[in-house]
Design goal:
- It is built from eight helices and twelve strands.
- With 239 residues, the chain is α+β, with helices and mostly antiparallel strands.
- A four-stranded antiparallel β-sheet has the order 1-8-3-6. Strands 2-7-4-5 form a four-stranded antiparallel β-sheet. Strands 9-10-12-11 form a four-stranded antiparallel β-sheet.
- Helix 3 packs across helix 4, helix 5 packs across helix 8 and helix 6 crosses helix 7.
- Keywords: DNA-binding, Transcription, Transcription regulation.
- It comes from Streptomyces morookaense.
- InterPro entries: cNMP-bd_dom (IPR000595), cNMP-bd_dom_sf (IPR018490), Env_Response_Regulators (IPR050397), HTH_CRP (IPR012318), RmlC-like_jellyroll (IPR014710), WH-like_DNA-bd_sf (IPR036388), WH_DNA-bd_sf (IPR036390).
- One of its GO terms (cellular component) is cytosol.
Length: 239
């Protein structure tokens, strides 16, 4: 367990050591290559997932074919808890953006631990509460903050979580996120994201390539993000 590196405020980071040991004892670790699904929307499966390493995209597909990206999840995050606990089909798909290692726990065993270990139950409660709060903040920001601020905050957050430093203080984000994905995460259109990124490229703030984006000027993007950069990451309760 010592080699886990959970993100701050993630499910795993909220647990005490006895609770972590109990979860490890009833689960098993599985690996998923990048660009594969951990679960698919509408499927019936009886387990919950705790990310040990890697990055996962949470999304839904509508009947018209539109794909809505709900969240990006990282090490320590709890996934699939709703369908795992209520027994209903999966409300969203989980897609590995990078190679992923995850702790898989049967729904029955996870439910039993939430009943017997207050720390586990409390961590689940806090995770769900935080996701609802973050979703509310994002919806509020969609009406009160400019898209540029929301997109800048997203890139800064992705850089902090998944980026690696490159020359001159720049940060390279190697995630296969499309402009449609980014549009879904900031509640706008792909066309708007494309326009803003083009403007930022011409201003020397970012550089984009296939499956990667480089934040060249984090300080300037921070000014653009303003108050958004100080808020928790974008989240959804639908997993």
């Amino acid at each position: 367990m010592d080699d886990w590196n959970p993100a701050a405020h993630s499910f795993w980071s909220l647990l005490d050591e006895p609770s972590r040991a109990a979860l490890m004892a009833v689960g098993h670790v599985s690996s998923f290559p990048a660009r594969t699904h951990l679960v698919r929307q509408h499927e019936s499966s009886g387990h919950v997932i705790v990310l040990r390493d890697g990055c996962v995209k949470v999304y839904t597909d509508s009947e018209t074919g539109y794909q809505a990206v709900l969240a990006i999840r990282s090490a320590g995050d709890l996934l699939g808890e709703q369908a795992g606990l209520d027994g209903r089909p999966r409300s969203a798909s989980l897609y590995a953006l990078t190679d992923v290692e995850a702790l898989i726990i049967s729904s029955a065993r996870f439910s039993a631990l939430t009943s017997s270990l207050p720390a586990v139950a409390n961590a689940v409660r806090l995770v769900l509460s935080n996701r609802l709060r973050d979703a509310d903040r994002l919806r509020t920001a969609a009406g009160a903050e400019r898209v540029e601020a929301r997109l800048a905050a997203l890139l800064l957050e992705l850089g902090e979580l998944y980026g690696c430093p490159v020359d001159g203080g720049s940060v390279r984000i190697d995630l296969p996120l499309t402009q449609d994905d980014m549009a879904g995460l900031v509640l706008t259109s792909r066309r708007t994201v494309s326009r803003i990124l083009e403007e930022w490229r011409s201003q020397g703030l970012v550089a984009t390539g296939r499956q990667a984006i480089v934040v060249i000027a984090p300080v300037e993007l921070g000014r653009c993000a303003g108050a958004m950069a100080k808020r928790p990451g974008h989240s959804s309760s639908q997993e």
